[in-house]
Amino acid sequence: MNASSYPCPLPDGSSADEYALVFDRGLPQRLLIIPALFDEGHRLRRLCVDVMRRLGGSGIDSILPDLPGSNESTADLATLSLADWTSAARTAAGYFGATHVLALRGGGLVAALGLPGWHYGPVKGASLLRTMIRARVLSSREAGREESGEGLLIEAQEHGIELAGYRLGAAMVQQLQAAQPAENLTEIDQELLGGSPLWLRAEPDADAAQADALAAYLTMAIRK
Amino acid sequence: MRSQTDQLLRRILTDVLGLKPGQADTFDADTGLFGHLPELDSMAVAGLLTEMEDRLDIVIDDDEVDGELLESFGNLLAFAEDKRNAA
Questions:
Q1: Pairwise CA distance, residues A152 & A161, whole Å
Q2: How many structural domains compose chain A?
Q3: Which ipTM score applies to this complex?
């Protein structure tokens, strides 16, 4: 396992070296993992890395890039949109020579890369947005401020919004509201992994059995 | 005999709280949720409500969510049953 980076295009025309975690032994089968978005990305990161280790043991290389504005990235999230994340994923796929893609949850909204692959726990952008807006309404209420979810959404589509600590620009909100999972990917259902979805956990957690199941499925599917 | 809503709700709470299989079977109407279970912060509550909407096929208005609703398993179940019956 190594820390690497890729030259990621940014909306202002510049480029930034964004971090990527790689298991790269120059093998012919190379899986690009597009992480889940926002807080779900944190809750599923351990699962990603556990799966990468297992794939490495099976002779499959894997790459987990940071999307700009997330994880280690210093890019300003408020300036970015889903389209920029699709560009980032496409650039990473080309740079690392990915042959397959695995998108997790909201990662599937930016996974239309023309590569064969899988989508674990597909979700619509509007559903992710709704949950984050709801969390804000609830925490504001606890703090004694009444906000309306509908009002926040309208405001956010015009001016952007801060949700769960993430500063989202208007373009990001608009694109999330409309975004559907990439259609060419095969859905991986939670039933296949067993247990309960780690992205739902209130506290980030690990589950070796789920990582075993996902890695075994991917190994068979990639080798087919 | 538990209703389908009851079973689904226990399953959802198991997923959100990362409970061991069978643990939610011990919940009764008085089992405390929000406030009693430290895991339930606002993001977790929001995730819980979205899962309830998806799996129970209901729509929950933010105005309907208050401390009382999440106080006990019984309150949350009664709310979910009413929603599904009204749908």
A1: 8
A2: 2
A3: 0.82
- Is A137 within 8 Å of B62 when comparing Cβ atoms? yes
What are the pLDDT tens digits along chain A (224 aa)?
Answer: 899 999 999 999 999 999 999 999 999 999 999 999 999 999 999 999 999 999 999 999 999 999 999 999 999 999 999 999 999 999 999 999 999 999 999 999 999 999 999 999 999 999 999 999 999 998 898 888 999 999 999 999 999 999 989 999 999 999 999 999 999 999 999 999 998 899 988 778 899 999 999 999 999 999 98
Inspect the interface and report whether the beta carbons of A203 and B14 lie closer than 8 Å: no
A14 and A115 inside one domain: yes
- Residue ranges making up the domain that contains A158: 124-180
Among candidates A123, A121, A62, A129, which has minimal Cα distance to A96? A62
CATH of the domain at A13: 3.40.50.1820
Task: Closest CB to B18: pick one of A127, A164, A201.
Answer: A201
Same domain for A27 and A95, yes or no, is: yes
Architecture of domain B4-86: Orthogonal Bundle (1.10)
Q: List Cβ neighbours of B66 (8 Å cut-off, separation of 6 or more).
A: none
Are B43 and A202 in contact (CB < 8 Å)?
yes
Comparing CA positions, the residue from A46, A84, A50, A54 lying closest to residue A67 is: A84
Do both A18 and A78 map to the same domain?
Answer: yes
pLDDT tens track for B18-51: 888 888 999 999 998 876 666 677 888 898 999 9
Nearest residue, CB atoms, B15 vs list A134, A164, A197 = A197
**Interchain pair B45, A197: CB under 8 A:** no
φ/ψ of A186, rounded to 5, equals -85, 130
A58 and A18, same structural domain? yes
**Does A71 share its domain with A167?**
no
Do A79 and A32 lie in a common domain? Answer: yes
Collect all residues of chain B within an 8 Å Cβ-Cβ radius of residue A39: 43
φ, ψ for residue A31 (rounded to 5)?
-100, 120
Q: Which residue of A has its CA nearest to B15?
A: A196
